[in-house]
Design goal:
heterodimer, A: alpha+beta, Four Helix Bundle (Hemerythrin (Met), subunit A), six-stranded mixed β-sheet, 20 helices, about 20% strand, flat, B: mainly beta, OB fold (Dihydrolipoamide Acetyltransferase, E2P), five-stranded mixed β-sheet, 10 strands, globular
Chain lengths: ~725, ~160
């Protein structure tokens, strides 16, 4: 029972890969870079999904995949050529296929009738072929082939009726197996060509004690009666030609030329063969395969062979929990290592001693280990990007605009959790890009641009972070409109003097929507501010760049992992605290900053022509009273979620380093102003400040941009 | 209310007995993960006064409760001779700062008497009953109540 659940699970996992391959193939067909092999591959993915779905009785999936497959089969056969309209239907079908797989996975298979429209569309494309074919899961039982061991006198008569007879000697080499090929599959493929007699030659099989486990020693003598010619037979071995010794000889029809097996078969009584039952010269074990057409065998073989060609990496699927446990342990190890290093340095040993040399090596190894372990969680962004291509298609369809989707750098790897949590913000952004970014087609043509807009999604590694950029070639942000709307909505003062980039970033304010007409998909006033807060939650930053007339780019910069954080280790009121560097803009000595009193006891300083409130970190966290004298303190200039700046005073800045994040929620709960904790080299705990939740103990009358829901938190 | 541990053990219960502010207390051994010496903690901002701070238990960050202060018996000034009892309740790990652990006892369940009315309010809230061994009194602590309330976003 659990075995079948495992199989099912395996099928859906495989579907993910297949759907990815399908999307790849369709993209290649779209680009015009597709050759026959790509079309074949596309066909095979759909066929495999159908096959698997059949095995699990997922009828809706089967019937849809069947209709899809029929058209692809026609394309493959060359009876139908691919038009852009056809590709559009293919994309839609691939989306539908993904939906159906997902529905089947969650157990909510929908009624077949829903698919009728699209199936009908597919049928029309297919030019009517294959329409009447029965669809049933039985189509795919062919994987299990009938194996019979008939009596020798039951052997089919070898009579000539236009068929020719071949003798094939097939000796696989080690590489054949090493590359994941299987002699049985090749033989099975041969069997589909005609009547096949199979004889195993065990003469080379050594005694067990001398056997090399990975050195194949069995070869096969095959006798094939078929109407195919020699090159068809050779084709079966196409992918393994250099990995086996192959000899194909045509022998006369009906000739009684079965070679004397005893010539090459010396099975000794005390050396029983390992792979097959004992064979005596008088009655050779003949495996007569059922000769009914068994396309599936070929297709499986073809798939195997293709894998050999394209797949150079081998992968395993591992439970995420195991990986996380490993990451935790390595995190502990890194901390222990830091503690050890500190203890050793406190011993003040003579320089050049062995302990320090060994410690240095340990340090290097542990940081390498940490990096490698983190890399396990990293996944390419490709599946995410592929999902986004669907969003573009749907958004383009809803708005009636023509949009092309391009991706760059989809092999860039990011932490799995980051990828999962990026899906929603990216969806928002893409809908925005198509809906608000791209102009209506007639405006595009008037502006001398191609009628079809382009939305580009790119990923790249940049200085230890991942930068994901979404750009469109639309009209850019309409700054006048944004500015006047922001004033109208009371988000900025009437006379606000804003730079262009500042205006662009107003789009991230909560409750902002520029499109005159609230459309179905974006512009509900929730959008970019949600995007921003979700990205912030991942420790990322998001900025928008726009150039009028030529487009808008939104870039997201993300940490590579959520398990560690780049932080500034500081001291506040005698406590060691970590401030995330993602929010940090600069540090200033308080003596040089010119801190001034505003009103009763509020403090401000001037930075880049702007007055920013000054807080004391120790006071914010309730460790001490607000100091009256800031001399000797250091000010950290922090930019929070809303782009608002605050200067935070600390006693001392120690250093900048990566710290392992330890949550406080499980054992304690939420603490205002604190995001998490970490463990320092001496084993003590340092709290990580949540810079967005730092509030003065006595409230300052600063202009708060946007409604902050966190204002209530500072009176705990 | 959280007597499920007591219900499970039919005849007798095993307890860890310890001293807080020179008084005898105990908790059910089922809650206890380990017992270790005092190490300095990191002070938490905006925390109740009886939460001494956060400690590092081999990589797990957990809060330490000053049991004496929690029971209304005054602040503990921890020294290396003080002991932290690590208890676990529903996935949640908390350290309890006590003076010393005195014993592990197996006591008949029926020996637990209800808390007498004379006990002060702060103490009585956290005590589920009292064992008497010879002439000494051991107060059984209700672990679920002694833990700090889970700090949520609305706690202010």
């Amino acid at each position: 029972m659990s075995g079948s659940a495992d199989l099912r699970e395996g099928f859906f996992q495989e579907c993910e890969d297949l759907l990815e391959a399908l999307a790849d193939g369709l993209n290649a067909m779209d680009d015009g870079t597709a050759d026959a092999e790509v079309v074949n591959a596309v066909f095979r993915t759909v066929h495999s999904i159908k096959g698997g779905a059949g095995a699990f009785g997922l009828e809706t999936l089967v019937s849809f995949a069947h209709a899809f497959e029929n058209v692809l089969d026609d394309v493959r056969a060359g009876t139908v050529s691919v038009s852009p309209e056809m590709l559009a239907v293919f994309y839609k079908s691939s989306d539908r296929l993904a939906d159906l797989v997902e529905a089947a996975n969650s157990g909510e298979e929908n009624a077949p009738s829903q698919d009728d429209a699209l199936i009908e569309e597919l049928r029309q494309l297919g030019g009517g072929t294959g329409e009447d074919e029965e669809v049933s899961p039985d189509d795919f039982e062919a994987i299990g082939f009938a194996l019979e061991l008939p009596e020798v006198n039951d052997l089919p008569e070898l009579e000539g009726d236009g068929k020719s007879e071949f003798e094939i000697r097939f000796t696989p080499k080690k590489e054949l197996y090493a590359n994941g090929n299987d002699a049985a599959l090749l033989i099975r493929a041969l069997k589909d060509l005609g009547e096949l007699e199979i004889t195993a030659d065990l003469s080379e099989v050594p005694v067990l004690s001398e056997m090399e486990w990975d050195e194949p020693s069995v070869s096969w003598h095959l006798r094939l009666i078929t109407d195919e010619n020699q090159s068809d037979i050779r084709e079966v071995f196409e992918f393994v030609e250099d990995q086996c010794a192959l000899e194909i000889i045509r022998i006369d029809e009906g000739a009684d030329s079965l070679p004397d097996i005893s010539d090459f078969m010396q099975v000794q009584e005390d050396n029983p063969p390992v792979f097959l039952p004992p064979i005596s010269p008088e009655s050779p074990t003949v495996i007569s395969a059922d000769t009914r057409a068994d396309i599936e065998g070929i297709s499986i073989f073809g798939k195997k062979a293709e894998k050999k060609v394209t797949a150079t990496k081998t992968t395993i699927r591992v439970d995420l929990e195991r990986v996380d446990r490993l990451i935790n342990i390595v995190g502990e190890m890194v901390i222990s290592e830091a503690m050890l290093t500190q203890s050793v340095s406190e011993m003040s040993l003579q320089s050049g001693n062995q302990v320090e040399a060994a410690m240095a090596q340990l340090k290097q190894l542990s940081s390498e280990l940490q990096e490698s372990v983190m890399a396990i969680r990293a996944q390419p962004v490709k599946p995410l990007f592929q999902r986004m291509s669907r969003i573009v298609r749907e958004a383009a369809q809803e708005t009636g605009k023509a949009a092309k989707f391009e991706t760059i750098g989809d092999t860039v790897e990011v932490d799995k959790t980051v990828i999962e949590r990026l899906a929603d913000p990216l969806t928002h952004m893409i809908r925005n890009a198509v809906d608000h970014g791209l102009e209506e087609t007639e405006f595009r043509i008037a502006a001398g641009k191609p009628a079809q807009g382009t939305v580009t999604l790119s990923a790249a590694h940049r200085s230890g972070r991942v930068v994901i950029e979404l750009s469109d070639d639309g009209a850019g942000v309409n700054r006048d409109k944004v500015r006047s709307l922001a004033i109208k909505k009371g988000l900025i003062p009437d006379d606000a003097d804003l730079a262009d980039t500042e205006i662009d970033n107003l789009l991230f304010l909560p409750g902002f929507s520029t499109n005159d007409v609230v459309s179905n998909m974006s512009g509900r006033g929730v959008g970019m501010d949600v995007v921003k807060s979700e990205i912030r939650a991942l420790g990322g930053r998001v900025v928008i760049h726009s150039s009028p007339g030529s487009g808008t780019t939104v870039s997201i910069s993300l940490p590579l992992t959520l398990a560690v954080l780049e932080g500034m280790v500081v001291q506040a009121a005698g406590e060691t605290v970590v401030v995330p560097t993602s929010a940090l803009r600069e540090t200033v000595r308080a003596d040089e900053a010119g801190v001034q009193v505003l009103g009763s006891d509020d403090l401000v300083m001037s930075s880049h022509g702007e007055l920013v409130p000054v807080l004391d970190l120790g006071a914010c966290l309730g460790y001490r009273e607000m100091p009256q004298d800031f001399s000797g303190l250091t000010l950290l200039l922090i930019e929070n979620e809303n782009g608002r700046r605050t200067a935070v005073a600390v006693d001392q800045v120690f250093d900048q380093r990566e710290v392992v994040i330890k949550g406080l929620e499980t054992n304690y709960g939420f603490i205002p102003g604190i995001a998490a904790a970490t463990i320092l080299g001496d084993g003590r705990i340092a709290l990580i400040v949540d810079t967005d939740q730092l509030h003065p103990v006595t409230s300052l009358h600063h202009h708060e941009v946007g409604a902050s829901s966190k204002g209530v938190l500072n009176n705990g | 209310m959280d007597n499920n541990v007591a219900v499970d053990i039919h005849q007798s219960r095993e307890i860890v007995a310890f001293h807080v502010a020179d008084q005898g207390f105990c908790i059910d051994i089922g809650y206890v993960r380990e017992i270790r010496g005092w190490t300095p903690t990191t002070v938490l901002p905006h925390a109740p006064d009886y939460v001494k701070g956060m400690m590092n238990l081999r990589g797990t960050v957990l809060p330490v409760v000053d049991l004496s202060l929690r029971l209304g018996l005054g602040v503990t000034n921890p020294s290396p001779r003080h002991v932290i009892i690590i208890v676990m309740l529903d996935e949640r790990m908390v350290g309890l700062l006590v003076e010393a652990v005195s014993d592990i006892l197996n006591l008949p369940h029926d020996d637990m008497k209800p808390t007498p009315d004379v006990a002060s309010g702060a103490t009585r809230n956290f005590i589920e009953g009292v064992f008497t061994i010879e002439d000494k009194m051991i107060r059984a602590i209700d672990v679920a109540r002694i833990l700090p309330a889970r700090q949520g976003h609305t706690t202010c």
